Each structure stands twice: as C-alpha cells, then as structure tokens.
Amino acid sequence: MSDITDDNKPKSKRHKRQVAEAVKIYTTPPTADDLAFIAREFILCTLPHSDPGDVPAWSRTNGNLTLGIQPGFNHKTGKSYGIPYGTIPRLLLVWIVTEIIRTKSRRLELGNRLADFLLKLGLDPSRGGERSDVRRVRQEIEKLFNAIISFAYHPNGEKHGGSARVSMQVAPKWALWWSDKDPDQNALWGSWIEVSEDFFQAVMNAPCPLDIRVVRHIKDSSLGIDLYTILNREAFRAMKNNKPRFLAWEWLHEQTGNEYRNLHNFRRDALVQVEAIMAVHSGLIITQQRGYRGQKSGLVISNLSTPSIPPDLAREPIQAAPNRLPPPLALVPPPPPAPPPPERFLKPATVARFRGMYPNLDPYACKAAFDAWADGLPAEEKPRHYDAVFKKFAERWVVGKLIVSNP
Fold first, then answer.
1. Which of 44, 53, 87, 146 is the least buried, fewest Cβ under 10 Å from its Cβ?
2. Phi, psi of 236 (to 5 degrees)
3. What is the DSSP code string of 277-322?
4. CA 335 from chain center: how many Å?
C-alpha cells in the first residue's frame, strides 16, 4: 500500500527517489560541503516567479524596501534581454553568493565546461529541447547579468521623505566561452565573471546561510526556494531571541508572491511548498494561525525551531578573513534602535504623601532607585500599577535613610 498514491496510481521512480532523498536530508546533519549562502536583500524582496513579459521595468515592495529590475538591452538583436525570473536566477544567485563568501573575491571562476557548471547548480546538462537546462541557464545568465538591479529603502515610508538607494549590476564583467550546442565540450579558456563592488559589499555584509541540499531538493519551485530562505531566516531569529515569529499570509504575499492576484491561491500553493520544506528541514516547527477576532492568519515559527545550518558552521567561512575590514555600507541599513520606554511620572498625590511621611527625604531620588529596580525585572513582572508599587518600594527604600532632626 505504501507504493500506491491517493488516486491508485503507482508512484514514479522519480517520486520514490525524491522521498528517499528527503529522508536522507532530514536525518543527516549538514556538513561544510552543504553550506551555501544568499544575500539578505534577495530574501526581503524576491525575484519574479513568472515572466513579466516585455516590460521596461519590474518591482516588488516589502514594507520599506523596494526591489526594482530594469532589463538590459541587446544591441545585436535590438530587443530587451527581459527580466530574470523563475528558479534558475535564484540558483545562480545562491552559487554566486556562496562563491563570494568562499573565495572573498569579486572574480569568480565558472570553469571550462558548461556541463560542469550546470551540475554545480544541481541542473541536468543532458536534457535537451526548447526548455532544456542548458538553454534556460544561458538565457537567464544574460538576463541577470545585463539587468540593472536597484534597492530603495524608505525608513519612514515613501510619503514621508528620506530614502537610500543603490543601483547595480550583479556582474558587469564576464567572459563565457562555453558551447551551448555541446555543453560537454572543453573550452580553450575558462569562463569567469566579476561581480560589482556594490553587490560584493552587500553579500559580505549580510549573507544568510542555507543548506544546499534543501535548495536542490525544492529547486523545481521558485516559490519553494523563496519560502525556504524566509522560513530558515525566521527560524534563526526565533531561536536567537527565544520568541516565536509570526508571518501573516498578507506579508508573505507582499514579500514573495504578489504575482498571485488572489491571496487564497497564494496560500494554497505556499502551503504545498511549506510541507515540502518541512520534509527536509528538520529544525522547522511551524503551526498555522487562523484569523479570528481581528487577528491575521498566517504561520507561527516556534522559538524551538533551528535554522538548517547551525550558526557555528555558518560563521567559520564568513569570518575566514580576520584582517578584512567590514564594508562601510549595506544596501539595507540596520533597523533603528528601539526607542526607550516612556518615562513614568508619579501622581502629585503620591509625591505629597511621600513628603508628608518622610519630610527629610527626596521623593525623586526614591523614584530613580525604583525605576532602576523596575528596569531590571522581566517583562512579565514589570509594575502594572506604577504608583501603588512605588509606595511599597518606598517603605523598604527609606530604611536607614531617615534622618531625625532636633527641634
């Protein structure tokens, strides 16, 4: 019965192989060879899933961050290269970012054979036809490397002014000597790319670790790749802060799926991919929250979750160059520090009562000691009734401080 699906059709060999691979990934801890990276900006705002068509520009906005892509122009054909979309640009970016972290260099060697490079991406160089991996990789390389990619950051929203922006090419210089017709052919010279300084700094400033086994397992779905990078990052944040993370469906739709006009359809497809991710990501503990009483529906990532790559394993290649100074700027500035809690004031009646009981003591010196004591309490133990707790604190604070003056 285990080899029969719900519709009574035997499982294919490919499906059986995928199930076996999922079990192996789920039960085997990652090693340094499984370590991959992606730049944080491409998690906060993701590339399009489907072809936007022949458009002058494309954009996606997530909160205060907007990703914009302007296609390059092919002067030979007189047409636009188009907007990079789908799974292959995502796999290319993962490989590029990982190589930058590994080599600490802007120049990356792609090798002498196209077939070898496709295998590095987890693709099949032998599959032919109009939608072959060879043909699609070449097309998406041209789209990705010729496009102008920009990130605009509006800390207070676009309507309130103030912004930061960077526009760049991923790789403004490259040499590709591969043969598309014969991907196994050895070129006389090795192919290479040189990433832009802006892209290099963004990668080195905030790389997010991934398990390449998981990426390759879900590589057939661009939505799956995006959700894995998001959920994996949120699992790290939940573990680090020891607090669950909540992702509303509306937020995920804005961040990665605004091509879906219907939120219900997005949620349906996203849940399929979440299930596939959890089948290979043993550290994810996710529950669904249904909307009720004004609360949003979405996913809750437990604080017991862990990222697919342990922080210690990810930290080593990032810090492998101890003498290298960190880049001065990042594409996305860090969020501003949380404002201090508003100062609490004693009621005039409380001050008058204190002075009446302890005429030789300063109520505001007692208040300063009280505030320092209250700041050190856990959040659940903080005083809810400020003046009432202050009065009890004052009874202990005045001990030994009372000064009896002679008449």
1. 53
2. -65, -45
3. HHTT-TT--EEEE---TTPPPEEEE-TT---SS-HHHHHHHHTS-T
4. 14
- Give every CB contact of residue 338 below 8 A, 6+ residues apart in sequence: none
- pLDDT in the model for residue 1: 34
Q: By the 8 A CB rule, do 403 and 360 touch?
A: yes
User: Tokens 């070449």 identify what position?
Assistant: 138
- State the residue for tokens 């009562």: 353
Kindly state the tokens that stand for 225: 């790749």
Cβ density class 65-93: b for 16+ within 10 Å, e for less: bbbbbbbbeeeeeeebbbbbbbbbbbbbb
125-137 residues labelled b (16+ CB within 10 A) or e (exposed): beeeeeebbbebb
Across the chain, which distance is largest between two alpha carbons, in Å? 107
Q: What percent of the chain has pLDDT over 70?
A: 86
Report whether pLDDT(394) > 70. yes
pLDDT band at 405 (very low <50, low <70, confident <90, very high): very low
pLDDT for 326 beyond 50: no
User: Do β-strands 191-194 and 107-111 pair in parallel, antiparallel, or remain unpaired?
Assistant: antiparallel
The secondary structure element, H or E, covering residue 353 is helix 348-357
Query: What does DSSP assign to residue 41?
Result: H
Q: Name 66's bridge partners.
A: 61, 152
CA distance 207 to 35: 12
Q: How far apart are CA 35 and CA 102, in angstroms?
A: 10
The span from the CA of 179 to the CA of 169, in Å, is: 24
Measure the CA–CA gap between 394 and 389, rounded to whole angstroms. 9
Eight-state DSSP code of residue 8: S
For β-strands 107-111 and 79-80, DSSP reports them as unpaired
CA dist 282 and 96 (Å) reads 26
What is the per-residue DSSP string for 43-76? HHSPPPSS---S-S-EEEEETTEEEEEE--EETT
**Which tokens in the block code for residue 47?**
């590339």
Spell out the residues 6+ positions from residue 406 whose beta carbon is closer than 8 angstroms to its own. Answer: none
| 88 neighbors 94 (Cβ within 8 angstroms) | no
